[in-house]
Amino acid sequence: EKLFLLTGYGCFTEVRFKDVQAFTKRSESRIVFSRSSFEKKLKSEFGVHYQVSLTQDYLVVHPVGQDRFWPNRIQSVYTSFENYFRGRRIPLGKHDYPLVALVFATRAEFDEYSRKNGEKIDRNIVGYYSPNTNRIVMYDQSQNGGTWTRNLDTVVHEISHQAAFNCGLHGRFADTPRWVVEGLGTMFEAPGVWDSLNHPQQVERVNKGLLGLFREKTVSRNVKGWIGDVVVGNRLFEKDPEVSYSSSWALSFYLMETQPRKYVDYMKMLEGLPPFKKYPAEKRVSDFSQAFGDFDRLEGLVRNFFTRFE
């Protein structure tokens, strides 16, 4: 048994009951520290080689001298996230805490920070959103043999996670199905989603890489029951990442393009799941069926929908 404590900085820590001698609830109100307090804390945490830049929604920790580069790009992607939903008349909640993004100078610093915070990060992961700390964590790949394009892909994907968990689309402490989380994240990788002003056509909202995988792995093989495989649990992500990510994207993109209200209502239902409790497979299936109907019929509709992009 353990207790989760949420701090005024938006991070939570675990306290095991066996280590607690006594506790007292001091207040009914929740304390959220100010942006200036956040800034001081981050400056103290990351030292003189990093600076903290403030934008409308973010505190961005980045290497000294890059204040004209990272903060504006991170803020612009977040603003695009808000505009995407507002343009569809879908209200978003206001985040309770100033949002934090960490950009390390090197892969080694990224790995060391992740290790100290108990995050198990695979070597091929170049950035992530941590629900525990409520921070985006990444490193500057353009300074480490990579490209700005990969930086941008990481920023877009992880900001979509952070925004969704802070604006009422995902429950930060609930057992949100991974297909929903990754489906939304991969959907935002397309230029037509995160930069719709310059890419206004529907075809530009398509994640072309994942559409190709979806056709190869699922459509061309005439796979039946793939929606059920995705909805029922998270194991498919460990078993076959290409199938799970492409299927999650295809299902999410179809629902957002054709049934946005139902899709967002479904996500808000998930946001209300009990915190820190498992979401059973049978409940996942029944909730999805109630929201979107028969699985077999929906598979046919999804397949037909994507023929327009051939």
Commentary on this structure:
There is one protein chain. It contains 13 helices and 7 strands. With 310 residues, it is of the alpha/beta class. β1 (2-6) and β2 form a beta hairpin. α2 crosses α4 (148-166) and α5 crosses α10 (241-258). The longest helix has 19 residues, at 148-166. It is globular. The model has no long low-confidence stretch (mean pLDDT 91).
Helix content: 40-55%
Span between termini? 53 Å
Note the run of SSEs as H and E.
EEHEEHEHEEHHHHHHHHHH
* Estimated structural class: alpha/beta
Rg over C-alpha atoms, rounded to the nearest angstrom: 20 Å
Topology record:
Elements: E1 2-6, E2 12-16, H1 35-46, E3 50-54, E4 58-63, H2 70-86, E5 99-104, H3 107-116, E6 127-130, E7 135-139, H4 148-166, H5 178-187, H6 191-194, H7 208-219, H8 226-231, H9 235-239, H10 241-258, H11 260-271, H12 281-292, H13 295-306
Helix pairs in contact: 2-4, 4-5, 5-10, 7-10, 10-11, 11-12
Keyphrases for this structure?
310 residues; alpha/beta; two-stranded antiparallel ribbon; 48% helix
Report a brief summary of the structure:
The protein has 310 residues and is an alpha/beta fold. It has 13 helices and seven strands.
